[in-house]
Amino acid sequence: MKVVRTLAWSPLLLLAVAALSGPAFGQADLSGTWLPQFTEDQPERIPGPDLVDYLGIPINDAARQWALSWDPDRLGLQEHQCQVHTAAYIYRGPLQLRIWEERDPQTQDVVAIRNYISTYEQNRTIWMDGRPHPSDYAAHTWMGFSTGKWEGNILTVYTTHIKQGWHRRNGIPSSDLITLTEHFIRHDNHLTHVSIVTDPIYLAEPLIKSQDYVLAGNSGGNWLWPCEYVDEVPGRPHSSVPSYMPGQNPFVTEFAAKYQIPVEATLGGPETMYPEFQQKLKDLKPPPRSKAAQAGGNR
Amino acid sequence: MTAAWVQAATGASGCARERRLKPPLQAKACSTLALAFAWGALMFGQRSTDGDIHILKVQGNVYMLVGAGGNITAQIGNSGVLLVNSGNGKMNEKVLAALRTVTDKPIHYIIDTSFDPELTGGNEGIARLGAPVVGGNLGNSNHGAAIVAAENVLTRMSAPAGQKAPTPEGAWPGVTFFEGDKEIFFNHEPVITMLTPNAHTDGDTIVFFRRSDVISTGEIFNTVSYPVINLEAGGNINGVIDGLNHVLDLAIPEHEQEGGTYIIPGHGRLCDEHDLVEYRDMVTIIRDRVQTAIKRGMTLDQIKAAGYTKEYDPRWGSKTGSWTTDMFIEAVYKSLKK
To answer: CA nearest B253 in A: which residue?
Structure first.
């Protein structure tokens, strides 16, 4: 009887939710300044991920070797100092996200939805007028080329032509062939952003992430930070690119030892995303704390 | 690309029919040209196969034409047209038609960034339809556009007197230089052709359009494969890396490592500095690994089996075709053993 009563009430509940959610069944207006909430995945998003923490990222073997050979010193090279998070990653970090619509002055149709992302002063355009994506020969950018459409009250955005970057800022690479599908879902003064990244080069399965924002009262928190690169290591040969030889990353066990997780789990891969992996973990042991990686190592 | 294609291409070069060269010289010349053709064959299979020429405005005076084998750079203005490379020659009519969509001015210059048939195959046909820059007493007795290149491009496209050249005379560069830069002021813009010694070959150049802020790299950079190093024609991995770093020195991004100087690769899509940085990093890291392995006494076979390019292979490598990952590793190895 209890089940029947609940079912009988459900249409009314649904209507009530719809009424309280504002434009839930029409095209929402995303305009405003949004601030991210960091209660989810905070260690990765604010202080940053540990080295060799690839947990739950569906990377393939090639990405793993890329990441393990990546030396953070590389970020000190002039050409990498001002490297921006790509559109597939930038929404995870500290930022102020300002969204507004651009309308055709004659028809008042929405031509584009603009994003200003305070981090690295990135401007992003989501074209809503049905234009095609550029040719395969066009240049790639950090934010890529985006087209959007409304699916009910969800803005779905498809992006191509994104530069090579990282799926996680501890060396996991993202190729210049990624495609990004996003869903922007407004719930009154709350915004959920879902991103689905496919990478034919470095991901074995799509990487799906979500993050949430709240509507801010002001838009004064921008980073006015035109990055200027400098020579951070005087005397370093111009052609030097810091990296580790395969198999010689000195930090492979550091994260695993710190949190007492088997190394096999920290190295990521699609199986680490699924609950069944917990069964495998029972047969694996974390490295002893005393064997945490020492600083330095072979390059 | 299939061996049959390569054989056909090699045959088309005329090497198989050449009888006057001494055997060792003939073999060397043929293998050098064969690799150049093979590179073209590989690249043809990895890019536009729709049979059309795609023209893309880059910035300033500069356009990029894709679909004629190697990329063609076109600088266009009131003074006329300057091309960097002419494509494989099979698409000349469509190349000219594409140019005519943006200008009716004559072609005055073709700059060859190396001798590869993918880049110089259109020389003869396109130059013939061009126009010399000067006239009167100073005019070129041969009508047509001037072809500019490093001296070694001419050497490899021609042959000593009495011997059969691998390419027709009308395709040869007539304005060559041995060292430093070749400077041209054209369409209100300095155009600087800079030698890149012993990189893809021993006759490579990059071309810098200083006002438009565009660099055309030729074969030292592409977005579709590991760099092709033609050891027989004087190529070397260290020269490739030096060339890439030279381009990085010239390029300046506009904002947050994006835009600013645009870079037209020998093959593939339009780039800016960041794209080239990642390519430079990749090539340098592989060079360093092979160098370390050599110091450890590893053999070429051991190095090939070590998986030193594993993270780059899905994007840049190939197990089949005329420029495989193994061939690239071997070229790096032999470069470093020299």
So the answer is: A79
Residue B48: its pLDDT value, please? 60
Kindly state whether B287 is in contact with chain A, defined as any CB-CB distance less than 8 angstroms: no
Residues of A in contact with B268 (CB under 8 A): 137
Task: Of B202, B194, B200, B285, give the one whose Cα is nearest residue B247.
Answer: B194
- pLDDT > 70? residue A291: no
**DSSP secondary structure, B98-125, as one string:** HHHTT--SPEEEEE-SS--HHHHTTHHH
The answer to whether residue A92 sits within a structural domain is yes
Q: Which residues of B touch A65 (CB under 8 A)?
A: 307, 310-311
φ and ψ of B218, to 5 deg: 65, -150
**Contact assessment for residue B245 and residue B252, using Cβ atoms and an 8 Å cutoff:** no
Paired strand residues for B181: B194
The model's pLDDT over A234-258, given as tens digits with 9 standing for 90+, comes to: 888 877 999 999 999 999 999 999 9
Chain A: residue whose CA lies nearest to B273? A79
Give B161: exposed, middle or buried? Use CB within 10 Å, 0-12, 13-18, 19+: exposed
B281 has a chain A CB within 8 A of its CB: yes
Cβ atoms within 10 Å, residue B211: 16
In this complex, which of B249, B269, B313 lies closest to A136 when CB atoms are compared?
A: B269
Of A63, A82, A135, the CB nearest to B54: A135
Is residue A18 over pLDDT 60?
Answer: no
- Complex prediction ipTM: 0.88
pLDDT of residue B201: 98
- Is A84's CB within 8 Å of B288's CB? no
Put simply, the chain B residues between 60 and 89 with a CB less than 8 A from any chain A CB are 64, 66
Weakly modelled stretches of chain B, pLDDT under 50: 1-46, 138-139
Under 8 Å between Cβ of B204 and B156: no
pLDDT at site A234: 86
Nearest to A69 among B248, B284, B311 (CB): B311
> pLDDT at position A275, please?
95
Assess B254–A contact: CB distance below 8 Å, yes or no: no
Ranges of beta strands (E only) in chain B are 54-59, 62-66, 72-77, 80-84, 107-111, 146-150, 175-177, 181-185, 190-196, 204-209, 214-218, 262-265, 271-272
Query: Domain holding A92: CATH number?
Result: 2.40.128.20
CA-wise closest residue to A186 among A30, A58, A65: A30
Q: Mind listing the domains of chain B with CATH numbers?
A: 3-337 (3.60.15.10)
Q: What is the mean pLDDT of residues A107-112?
A: 96
For chain A, how many structural domains are there in total?
1
Q: Strand pairing partners for A146?
A: A126, A159
Name every chain A residue with its beta carbon within 8 A of the beta carbon of B279: none
Decide if B310 touches A, using CB distance below 8 A: yes
